[in-house]
Amino acid sequence: MSDQLAFNWPTGVALGPDDFFVSEANAQAYAMLGAPDTWPERKLALIGPKGSGKSHLARIFQSQNAGQLVAAATITADFRTDAQTIIIEDFEEIPTAAEEAVFHLHNNLRNAGGTLLLTSDKPPSLWPVALPDLASRMQATTVVQITNPDDALLSALIMKLFADRQMNPQPHLVQYLATRIERSYAAAADIVARLDVAALAQGRKINKSLAAELLDNSD
């Protein structure tokens, strides 16, 4: 995995390794997902804010390790799999009825030397797991975090969000936005979406003037 950008992409957005931008905010997570042999008991919890790139990294990891990816909310009480690399996304949404199945999955992977990657926007200590044996194993999982975006990542993210909407803003607009919005993944997604909607509704170009109006109206 080389120079690339972190974001939880909506449907239709590029999710390949070359679409992921590495910065200080996600470098540790990026490196650890590239070295599952170093994970204690070969399990890892990838934690970060919504929109920070967890799903993107999970899909890169899945493709590079022939893994099976499953959304926690879809796991049922009779869930079974022979896959040796499992990625469970949004683990905090695991149904109570599925906890025993996940407990057995965890133990089977550990006994077989398999790999387990979990993603969430909350640390394992805050996951609402009712089954004590599963809760204790999840809380013992090694955690790597994606933090809020630094300047480089925020600018790259804004550019990528525009590109995914088939828009090519001037660099000075990206710079203007990056210095005026909240430094978060959600804020970047919000301003790009609002600019797109406003430009279409008003028949205007996406530029600094329109951005200033939207940002002023947000105050």
TrEMBL record:
GO terms for biological process: DNA replication initiation. It comes from the Bacteria. Gene3D superfamilies: 1.10.8.60, P-loop containing nucleotide triphosphate hydrolases. GO terms for molecular function: DNA replication origin binding. One of its GO terms (cellular component) is plasma membrane. InterPro entries: P-loop_NTPase. This is DnaA/Hda family protein. The lineage of its organism: Bacteria, Pseudomonadati, Pseudomonadota, Alphaproteobacteria, Rhodobacterales.
